[in-house]
Amino acid sequence: MFRLQADSIDTSAETASLADPTAGGLATFEGRVRNHNGGRDVLRLEYEAFEALAASEGEKILNEARRRFDIMHLRCVHRTGVLEIGETAVWVGASAAHRDAAFKACRYVIDEIKHRLPVWKKETYANGSAEWVNCRHHHHQPELSEKVYYERQRVLPDVGESGQQRLKRARVLVVGAGGLGSAALAYLAGAGVGTLGICEPDTLVPHNLHRQTLYRIEDLGQFKVEAAARHLETINPFVTVIQHPEPLDITSAESLLAGYDLVLDCTDNHDARFVLNDAAIRTGIPLIQAAVYQYEGQLLLIHPAQDSPCLRCLWPAPPTDDCGTCVSGGVLGVVPGLLGTLQATEALKLILDLPTPLGDHLLLADLLNGEFRKIRRIANPDCPVCQTKKTRHEVAPENGAMESVLVSGLDDDMLIRYHILDIREESEQQENPLSLPCQTLPMSRWKNPVLPQDRPILLVCSHGLRSRQLALRLRREGFGQVFSLAGGLRELAKVKAVAQ
User: Fold this and answer.
1) Which region holds residue 388: left if phi is over 0, alpha if psi is between -120 and 50, else beta?
2) What is the pLDDT of residues 393-421, one digit of tens each?
3) Among 20, 50, 102, 427, which is least packed, fewest CB within 10 Å?
4) pTM over 0.70
5) How many CB atoms neighbour CB 478 within 10 A?
6) Which helix (H) or strand (E) holds 64?
7) CA 441, CA 445: separation in Å to the nearest integer?
8) How far is Cα 432 from Cα 253, in angstroms, rounded to an integer?
9) Could you say which DSSP state residue 210 is in?
10) What residue spans of 284-392 are helical by DSSP H?
11) In 3-state terms, what secondary structure has residue 196?
12) Can you tell me the distance from the alpha carbon of 219 to that of 124, in angstroms, rounded to the nearest whole number?
């Protein structure tokens, strides 16, 4: 779909290649060499490219456009070498079912190519001088060296060269690139956090812009994770941004966190907060959570290595659907901006090993009254997630009722008392089969199964997250004797040892 060429572009032939009787719209764009720029007369242009990288990145851009705008056919040709006035420097063409999609695809491709391709343009002027222009790889310029970029930060006694290197080595995952994430990502990038991961599946819509300051009007309709990555690179060319466009869920959370040193929860979703809390405890990765509502916000640090109380110590289960969010209750745009900035502050303090008075406290902010309060969090000894000393049946509220769904205490008659169901997928079962008497029934194939009635059912998965979710669902459907094994396979390994 994308190619570089030194010869002139046959635009008629390129347009003809897009012909499709099922297409209702065909749009093309030509970028031509003009005879002036910045008040100076231009004689000719010269394009130089890092061809291997430009070709692969160009193909990636066109694939993004095809997926985003539902395009049937898409082509782009970019010239290299010397071009005279009036010659076509770049051509883009798209055919789609509707003309609007074709127009948008062409616009997207030309904008992304301008910003992302390693292609450099040299202008020769009528006065005999020549100059490379529009070169966006500013990190090659000495005035934007890392030493200069971080100059004001490095003079801090608690940062210096060693602290800046610590920031550069850090890997931070930000889940949610909305109002909280926009502020947090910008400041983490500016501080020099070497690797930033962004998990965000949504596209940008108009009502996001008043509070999500990382984006621009021209980003509307684009995936936030892509637009955010692009803007962060313009803030700091020395950081690496990893995109995670997939949604967060209970089955993917732990694998998503793997490889990161620290996680920021910048979501606006009650269920996601609890999923991240549980995954952080399981993996031992510190988590900084923030939440906002209208003019208020709250902030807490969950640090498994320091045995800090977790989210479930405060609220054992997600609130009901009628509990307010930004969607239902509204929000003043500055509130998530401030809370996201506080999240970034706590993250930088953790990376730099600076004192954090947040510790075991919950920070409450009321911006309408200008009040900030810290409330000490107390670990719940019966917390089903973060406490190591647990009772046999731990309590987890669901829909306002107290239901005992988690099993963690193990003894030698467990295999007799429970009918064990392995709900992992077939690939997981094949990779790590159980040598215990159990029934296998993958969760993806769980449709109106006939459940055994002779004894209580114990659901098992890898880490205990999917099994808990399914146990709660079955309880709501009227199955009263369904339980989840807390800890998953790790706990079953103990059972095996007891059985032997």
Assistant:
1) alpha
2) 333 333 332 235 566 555 556 667 788 88
3) 427
4) no
5) 7
6) helix 51-69
7) 7
8) 20
9) T
10) 311-314, 326-329, 334-351
11) strand
12) 33
